[in-house]
Inverse folding.
């Protein structure tokens, strides 16, 4: 039981690292899109 909890905690930490990497990639791509394509996407949503 205790070993299973440790494995799950390790898996959760790995997923958190992946999520952090994905967040930073999204932020970088959003900064790159601010040149005009981001405005176009917001207008299409309205």
């Amino acid at each position: 039981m205790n070993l299973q909890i440790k494995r799950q905690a390790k898996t959760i930490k790995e997923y958190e690292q992946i999520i952090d990497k994905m967040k930073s990639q999204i932020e970088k791509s959003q900064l790159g899109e601010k040149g005009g394509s981001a405005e176009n996407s917001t207008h299409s949503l309205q």
Remarks:
- DSSP finds two helices and no strands in the chain.
- The radius of gyration is 18 Å.
- The mean pLDDT is 83.
